[in-house]
Specification:
alpha/beta, Rossmann fold, five-stranded mixed barrel, 34% helix, disordered C terminus
C-alpha cells in the first residue's frame, strides 16, 4: 500500500473524488482514508502545515497502515531565480544543514532512486507540460538555506527551494526506512496553500498516479546510511 500525505486542499479534494474509498479512521484528530486509486491500494490524509503535525501524521500513517512507500505533496519557497510561482520541484533529497554527519556534511534525507529514475524518463502528457518541472534539493527552512549559502554557496549545496513541512515528512520516512517521493509546488509572494494553480494540482495528481500505478518502490538500504 502507498501512503499519500498532501498539504494542499485542492489536491486533497481531487484525491477524495478520484479514489474509491473503502474505509476511514480518525487518528489523533485526523481523518485517514483508505481505498483504491488506479487499481492500487492507497491511504491518504491532509494534515495541517506545521512540521510537527506533518511528522506526527507521517508516523501515524506508517504505524496504522501496511505502508510500503509514501508520497508527499506540498508547497515550497524558491531559493533560485529560475523558479517561479506555479513551477514544480521534485525532491532528490532534503537537506538539514544544521545537522551534520561524521564528515561534517549536511545530513540528507534521500527520495527513492527508483522513483526518481522513473520520473526523469517519464514522457509527460500535455497535462504534465503546463509548468516547469525540475529535480533538486529542498532545504528544511529558508534560515537553514541562508546558513548553507554562507558556508558553501547555494550552487554547491544544490538547494533550490525551502519547505519545512516536506523536510519533516522526509525525516520520518528516513528514520523508519520508508521509501518516499515528494512533490512541491513553488509558491509566490503572498500565496497560500489555497491559491495553488489548478494546472499545478492536475500535474501533481498525474505524476503521483503514474508513480503509484507503474513504479514499484524498492528497498534501497544505501539511502539510509
Amino acid at each position: 500500500m502507498t501512503g499519500i500525505i498532501t498539504a494542499l486542499r485542492e489536491d486533497y479534494r481531487l484525491l477524495k473524488s478520484r479514489c474509491h474509498i473503502d474505509d476511514s479512521i480518525l487518528i489523533a484528530g485526523k481523518r485517514f482514508f483508505s481505498g483504491v486509486l488506479d487499481e492500487q491500494p492507497v491511504a491518504f490524509v491532509r494534515p495541517e502545515m506545521p512540521p510537527a503535525d506533518i511528522a506526527a501524521v507521517t508516523q501515524a500513517m506508517i504505524d496504522h497502515f501496511a505502508i510500503s512507500s509514501l508520497v508527499f505533496t506540498g508547497a515550497a519557497l524558491p531559493l533560485v531565480p529560475f523558479l517561479e510561482a506555479g513551477d514544480l520541484i521534485i525532491a532528490n533529497h532534503y537537506l538539514a544543514p544544521n545537522e551534520t554527519d561524521i564528515s561534517g556534511r549536511p545530513v540528507m534525507y534521500e527520495a527513492s532512486d527508483t522513483v526518481l529514475d522513473f520520473l526523469r524518463t517519464l514522457t509527460l502528457s500535455d497535462e504534465g507540460k503546463k509548468m516547469q518541472i525540475v529535480f533538486g534539493a529542498i532545504m528544511g527552512s529558508t534560515a537553514e538555506a541562508d546558513d548553507l549559502v554562507r558556508l558553501a554557496g547555494i550552487r554547491e549545496s544544490g538547494g533550490m527551494a525551502a519547505d519545512r513541512a516536506g523536510h519533516a515528512f522526509a525525516y520520518v520516512c528516513h528514520i523508519n526506512k520508508i521509501n518516499f517521493a515528494a512533490f512541491s509546488v513553488i509558491a509566490g509572494d503572498g500565496d497560500s496553500l489555497e491559491t495553488i494553480p489548478a494546472a499545478a494540482i492536475e500535474t501533481l495528481h498525474f505524476l503521483r498516479r503514474r508513480v503509484i500505478a507503474e513504479t514499484a518502490f524498492v528497498s534501497n538500504p544505501a539511502s539510509f546510511i
